[in-house]
Amino acid sequence: MKGMGLMSCQLKTHKYKQADQEHKTHDNILGRNFSPEAPNQVWTGDVTYVRIKGGWCYLAVVLDLFARRVVGFSVSDSPDSFLTASAGVSDETQA
Fold first, then answer.
1. Residues 51-81: pLDDT tens digits?
2. CA–CA distance from 5 to each of 1, 8, 11, 14, 20 (Å)?
3. ∠ at Cα 62 (38, 16), nearest 5°?
4. Per-residue pLDDT at 88
5. Apex CA 75: angle with CA 40 and CA 28, to 5°?
6. What are φ and ψ of residue 57, in 5° steps?
7. Count of alpha carbons within 13 angstroms of residue 20, beta-carbon side
8. What's the pLDDT score for residue 73?
9. How far apart are CA 64 and CA 44, in angstroms?
10. C-alpha–C-alpha distance, residues 7 and 1, integer Å
11. Residue 35 domain-assigned (yes or no)
């Protein structure tokens, strides 16, 4: 790297806030069976963060595991419960 004039620039690590209270845990009712037999039997979701020019942007997505299609999503500048709740079914997927 030195011979080519390159330098390593590492980003600061993302620090998560400590939770005020413990999160609820739920039973594993799927039993790792991720292949439902019909639409709308099993939905799954995920939240990810994307670095943008002004800081961070958070994306929550809900998928129908049968069709492997997005049934809802939401984008926010805050990774809170409003983000995940608003990622529910969009008007277009209800038809």
1. 998 889 999 999 999 999 999 999 999 888 8
2. 6, 10, 19, 28, 47
3. 145
4. 80
5. 40
6. -125, 140
7. 0
8. 95
9. 7
10. 7
11. no
